[in-house]
């Protein structure tokens, strides 16, 4: 019929960007007010012009005529996404899925909405459904799902998705860069270096790839690693002398290699370029602290907290205030960090250590419990909790913690030393001797371990050995 041709004409005018496509659509609706396709087409026109409220009104009219239209729900959901009304967009897309459970586009769009509202679990589920419904691998789905896995710390799953994605895009430098970051997070250093180097070969002067490869080299924590990381950061700065990340990371590499003044200069350069560079301010505050410049350290971290008040920043400021002897404000910062993130174990750990130094062992134990609860693999938190329990004479629980600390890090001499002291307290002289000998095998020049080993041997009436170890202890102390 002629009014249907009017809708077709309106569509053509939209595609060729004619100035008056609405004329045909309005004429068609004037003749047939219940013409579903005309409303949907007019919604599409208003959507392309950014007039979302009018577009949604036309979608509403289309749904009034055909309440079971998957297309109308899909388009209205997309419009609500554009207006950042994500919960209502999810409702429309869910309605579309209910009408057509095989509509992969509805699942994809709903996954993107879930991603924007921070519901990673639901987004991952919908992305998975899209991959099951579609015959070929969808690169966008793989990328989005891989990024979600990466952000959630599931680096093995992220690696799988990014590996599949690069098969369809062998020349995509950004994708290879992201894959390299995944390898790094997964502690696959060789693979990370190879992948990031390949990304550089695909894109000339790829500054972010140089910085990322420098980060990988620095994480090796070797002399050669620091040298190579500095080379990559310098190359990034050669191509872009104002790159804040390159300046900051080069400073960290220099600081970690014991070159405090040179590192301090790089942080200062970054701050001069951008006085609001909180990462450089935080790094310079730590360098100032290591150099004994407490006021400079506090000034920098205070400015960083004002710009970016994260739990990490607050905790670092608390540590600096603790060094300055201001226990009250240090504890206030630790408490504020805990309020900002109740699962941030480092804030609990530092609060516990402050209470421990004040000899408030009950309170220290309470915070060490929280630190271990939120990070069970933190050997330092477990070990310090064991020492707090020793001070409170909770010997059985302390022994369990010492055993856990040793299992978490079998190469930490201080864990064996402290467990040996507890064995001495309990009269387990043979076990104490074994622990002190193990501590000395890991740290052969520790005079305290020689002293305690001598005590353990003396209690077993091994006088000659005990005296020999006392002499070694005295010689090390005097040396």
Q: Topology of this structure?
A:
Layout: H1 2-15, H2 22-31, H3 36-48, H4 52-65, H5 70-82, H6 86-99, H7 104-116, H8 120-133, H9 139-151, H10 155-167, H11 173-185, H12 189-202, H13 207-219, H14 223-239, H15 244-256, H16 260-273, H17 278-290, H18 294-307, H19 311-323, H20 327-340, H21 345-357, H22 361-374, H23 379-391, H24 395-408, H25 413-426, H26 429-442, H27 447-459, H28 463-478
Helix pairs in contact: 1-2, 1-3, 2-3, 3-4, 4-5, 5-6, 5-7, 6-7, 7-8, 8-9, 9-10, 10-11, 11-12, 11-13, 12-13, 13-14, 13-15, 14-15, 15-16, 15-17, 16-17, 17-18, 18-19, 19-20, 19-21, 20-21, 21-22, 22-23, 23-24, 24-25, 25-26, 25-27, 26-27, 27-28
Summarize the structure.
This protein is mainly alpha-helical and 479 residues long.
């Amino acid at each position: 019929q002629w009014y249907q041709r009017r809708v077709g004409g309106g569509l053509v005018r939209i595609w060729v960007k004619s100035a008056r496509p609405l004329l045909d659509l309005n004429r068609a609706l004037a003749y047939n007010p219940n013409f579903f396709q005309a409303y949907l087409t007019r919604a599409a026109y208003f959507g392309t012009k950014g007039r979302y409220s009018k577009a949604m009104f036309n979608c509403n009219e289309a749904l009034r005529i055909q309440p079971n239209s998957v297309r109308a729900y899909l388009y209205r959901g997309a419009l609500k996404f554009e207006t950042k009304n994500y919960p209502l967009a999810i409702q429309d897309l869910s309605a579309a899925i209910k009408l057509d459970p095989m509509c992969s586009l509805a699942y994809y769009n709903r996954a993107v909405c879930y991603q924007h509202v921070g519901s990673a679990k639901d987004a991952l589920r919908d992305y998975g459904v899209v991959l099951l419904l579609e015959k070929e691998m969808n690169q966008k789905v793989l990328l989005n799902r891989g990024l979600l896995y990466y952000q959630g710390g599931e680096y093995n799953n992220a690696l799988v998705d990014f590996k599949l994605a690069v098969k369809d895009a062998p020349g995509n430098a950004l994708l290879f860069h992201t894959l390299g970051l995944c390898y790094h997070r997964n502690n696959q250093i060789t693979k990370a270096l190879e992948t990031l180097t390949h990304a550089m070969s695909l894109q000339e002067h790829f500054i972010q790839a140089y910085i990322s490869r420098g980060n990988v080299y620095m994480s090796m924590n070797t002399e050669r690693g620091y040298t190579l990381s500095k080379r990559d950061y310098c190359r990034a700065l050669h191509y872009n002398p104002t790159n804040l990340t390159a300046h900051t990371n080069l400073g960290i590499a220099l600081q970690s290699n014991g070159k405090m003044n040179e590192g301090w200069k790089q942080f200062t350069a970054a701050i001069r370029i951008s006085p609001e560079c909180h990462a450089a301010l935080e790094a310079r505050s730590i360098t100032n602290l290591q150099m004994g410049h407490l006021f400079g350290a506090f000034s920098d971290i205070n400015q960083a907290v004002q710009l970016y008040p994260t739990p990490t920043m607050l905790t670092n400021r608390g540590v600096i205030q603790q060094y300055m002897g201001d226990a009250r404000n240090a504890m206030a910062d630790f408490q504020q960090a805990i309020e900002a993130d109740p699962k941030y174990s480092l804030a609990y750990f530092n609060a516990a250590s402050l209470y421990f130094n004040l000899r408030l062992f009950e309170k220290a134990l309470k915070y060490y419990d929280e630190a271990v609860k939120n990070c069970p693999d933190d050997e330092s938190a477990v070990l310090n909790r064991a020492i707090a329990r020793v001070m409170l004479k909770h010997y059985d629980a302390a022994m369990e913690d010492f055993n856990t600390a040793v299992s978490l890090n079998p190469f930490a001499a201080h864990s064996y030393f402290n467990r040996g002291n507890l064995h001495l307290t309990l009269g387990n002289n043979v076990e104490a001797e074994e622990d002190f000998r193990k501590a000395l095998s890991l740290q052969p020049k520790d005079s305290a371990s020689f002293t305690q080993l001598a005590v353990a041997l003396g209690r077993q009436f091994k006088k000659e050995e005990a005296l020999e170890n006392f002499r070694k202890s005295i010689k090390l102390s005097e040396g």
